[in-house]
Design a protein that fits this description.
The chain has 209 residues and is an alpha/beta fold. It has one domain: Spore Coat Polysaccharide Biosynthesis Protein SpsA, Chain A, CATH 3.90.550. Helices cover 32% and strands 22% of the residues. The strands form two sheets. Strands 1, 2, 5, 6, 7, 8, 9, 10 and 11 form a nine-stranded mixed sheet that branches. The chain is globular and about 40 Å long.
């Protein structure tokens, strides 16, 4: 694994990136959930596997709480990482950290939650395909009229992400630039589910057997 600034990334200006948010404190779980077992791996490893098996070109993991433990687990994987020293300020701080570490020129970035190991590569590819064919800059997977993840943003929104207020989320951009939003229908409610609590975790484990 490499620090992003050690690499010459200029040739990859058309790349589609994944930003995986793995900096949270797991307050509701009360244990570091990213490193809990899931399908023979850990939760964060499974998320990374799904992303790297998709049409995403480059993957960046945003670390914060428990970063050393997570680094030990993912150091062998083909991903880069950055550290969000402001992770206690919430998810938006990690999103901003991720976008700041992307190269100057890239095509788009998909934002993933580190606790959604259920989102399969075909769903990710569906979002990317919608971006390539819709001429829209914000792509949102939807299941039964509910917005899920990963959300894709064209690189032109990088400065807009930086300007979001601490109490806002990326959803603020979908309202501000609603004419540039394309909703793609997913055939799975996995895009809506994350693992916040012990019950969430146990439920997902049962479904993977």
């Amino acid at each position: 694994m490499h620090d992003l600034h050690d690499l010459n990334l200029e040739p990859f200006m058309s790349d589609i990136w994944a930003i995986i948010l793995a900096a949270g404190e797991s307050k509701r779980m009360k244990v570091p959930k990213m490193i809990l077992p899931f399908k023979g791996k850990t939760i964060i490893e499974k998320v990374i596997e799904n992303v790297t098996d998709s049409e995403v070109d480059k993957t960046l993991v945003v670390l914060g709480s428990d970063k050393d433990d997570i680094l030990k687990i993912i150091s062998h994987l083909p991903v880069m990482h950055c550290y969000n020293e402001n992770y206690k300020q919430g998810m938006l701080s990690s999103v901003k950290c991720g976008f700041r570490f992307l190269p100057q020129k890239f095509r788009a970035a998909l934002v993933f939650l580190g606790d959604q190991p259920m989102i399969e590569p075909d769903v990710i590819n569906m979002v990317i395909s919608a971006y390539r064919t819709s001429a829209k800059g914000i792509i949102i997977p939807v299941f039964r009229n509910k917005h899920g993840h990963p959300l894709l943003l064209d690189s032109k929104y990088r400065d807009e992400v930086e300007m979001l207020k601490p109490d806002e989320t990326l959803r603020a951009l979908t309202h501000k630039f609603s004419d540039d939003v394309f909703e793609v229908e997913a055939n799975t409610h996995d895009i809506l589910k994350d693992i916040d609590t012990k019950n969430d975790y146990l439920k997902e484990l049962k479904q993977t057997k």
